């Protein structure tokens, strides 16, 4: 007879216990962006909702920003760094192919008992991370730190009229831990790889190795294609996530989608027929699109502004490069 493999006792349920944010010091307005592209403050505001964004300075590295956000999330969760069993970093602007930035974040925090790995799912990465964290806690207990952190400016071409004005830098983090009652619903996730070229790095790293003279690879996107896909497909995904959690739009207190474009957020809000009383996160106005960091930053903003409160029911919806997406319902910390 074969030996039986022991498995850990998981938690009955999982929940987000704390959130923290780090916004880089430097505020960049549309006039500054327009120094490099033929555009205007009015065009950028009308087409995207963005008024300002934060751009990180050299000392505000991924590790530094993530540590600041994570330390706040850990304190808010009422745990210590040693209680963290796993660090998941959602990022696609970590310019070292290896090691994962999550291991640096764990070390900076003093999370000496934690595993650490990065996930690459573009702007959908953070919600992928929360889903993995939730399942990990329910399977084996512990506390999982999920950090969304980006220095989009490291991969931006400031002269590219289709990307330069959209993106910003920053970090947001949550701690996911055990709960007696359900606090994180099932994830609805997927990807349409047939449209992978709609958001992409201009050339792979080996092209730079083989042709050292060529420009540093930058982020490129087909903005209109991404816009159409997000407006038509993501409202369906939002409804599927509500169905999976067994609730309707009227049960929501907050909607915290990826902050890609204010017009996309407004369109999704209309097609989901969200009641007016639902707080809709609009952190994009002052943060721009911070990719993997946008949802935890927006979560921190709706909570600190008082638009939503601890214990509220929120829909989180991330989407972007891949084209990938992930949505779930969660109780706010
Ligand atoms: C990028 C985005 C703001 C562009 O807006 P848009 O309305 O689709 O703009 P279009 O490309 O259709 O161009 C419309 C007009 O604006 C002009 N335009 C394009 N970029 C411009 C800029 N930066 N400034 C001023 N005018 C611009 C175009 O030349 C065009 O002019 P025309 O009508 O005279 O031909 C929009 O497509 C978008 O937000 N897409 C989603 C991108 C995104 O969120 N990506 C991240 C994924 S998570």
Task: Tell me about this structure.
This protein is of the alpha/beta class and 333 residues long. The chain folds into two domains: 13-179, Thiolase/Chalcone synthase (Peroxisomal Thiolase, Chain A, domain 1, 3-Layer(aba) Sandwich), CATH 3.40.47.10; 188-331, Thiolase/Chalcone synthase (Peroxisomal Thiolase, Chain A, domain 1, 3-Layer(aba) Sandwich), CATH 3.40.47.10. Helices cover 32% and strands 25% of the residues. It has helices spanning 30-33, 41-48, 62-77, 101-109, 125-140, 205-210, 223-245, 262-271, 284-287, 294-304; strands at residues 13-22, 26-29, 52-55, 84-90, 115-119, 143-151, 169-179, 188-191, 199-201, 219-221, 254-257, 279-280, 313-320, 324-331. The strands form four sheets. Strands 1-7-6-4-5 form a five-stranded mixed β-sheet, sandwiched between helices. Helix 4 (101-109) links the parallel strand 4 and strand 5 (115-119). Helix 3 (62-77) crosses helix 4 and helix 7 (223-245) runs parallel beside helix 8 (262-271). It is globular and about 65 Å long. It starts with 12 loop residues before the first strand and ends with a strand. The site of coenzyme A has 19 residues, from helix 2 and helix 7.
């Amino acid at each position: 007879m074969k030996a039986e493999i022991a498995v850990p006792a998981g938690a009955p349920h999982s929940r987000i216990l704390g959130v923290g944010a780090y916004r880089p010091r430097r505020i960049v307005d549309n006039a500054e962006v327009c120094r490099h592209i033929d555009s205007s403050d009015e065009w950028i505001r009308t087409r995207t909702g963005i008024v300002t964004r934060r751009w990180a300075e050299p000392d505000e590295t991924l590790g530094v920003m993530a540590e600041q956000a994570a330390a706040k999330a850990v304190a808010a969760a009422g745990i210590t760094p040693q209680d963290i069993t796993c660090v998941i970093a959602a990022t696609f602007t970590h310019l070292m192919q290896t090691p994962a930035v999550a291991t640096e974040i764990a070390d900076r925090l003093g999370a000496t008992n934690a595993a650490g790995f990065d996930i690459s799912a573009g702007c959908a990465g953070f919600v992928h991370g929360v889903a993995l964290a939730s399942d990990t806690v329910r399977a084996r207990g512990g506390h999982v730190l999920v950090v969304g952190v980006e220095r989009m400016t490291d991969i931006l071409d400031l002269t590219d009229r289709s990307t330069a004005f959209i993106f910003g830098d920053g970090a947001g983090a949550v701690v996911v831990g055990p709960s007696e009652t359900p606090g994180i619903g099932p994830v609805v996730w997927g990807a349409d790889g047939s449209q992978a070229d709609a958001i992409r790095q201009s050339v792979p790293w080996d092209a730079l190795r083989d042709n050292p003279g060529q420009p540093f690879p930058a982020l490129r996107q087909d903005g209109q294609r991404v816009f159409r896909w997000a407006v038509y497909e993501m409202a369906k995904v939002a409804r599927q996530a509500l169905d999976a959690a067994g609730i309707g739009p009227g049960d929501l207190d907050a909607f915290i989608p990826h902050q890609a474009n204010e017009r996309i957020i407004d369109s999704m809000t209309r097609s989901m027929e969200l009641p007016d009383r639902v707080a809709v996160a609009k952190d994009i106005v002052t943060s721009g699109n911070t990719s993997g960091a946008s949802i935890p930053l927006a979560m921190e903003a709706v909570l600190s502004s008082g638009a939503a409160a601890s214990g509220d029911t929120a829909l989180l919806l991330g989407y972007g490069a891949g084209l990938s997406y992930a949505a779930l319902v969660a109780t706010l910390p």
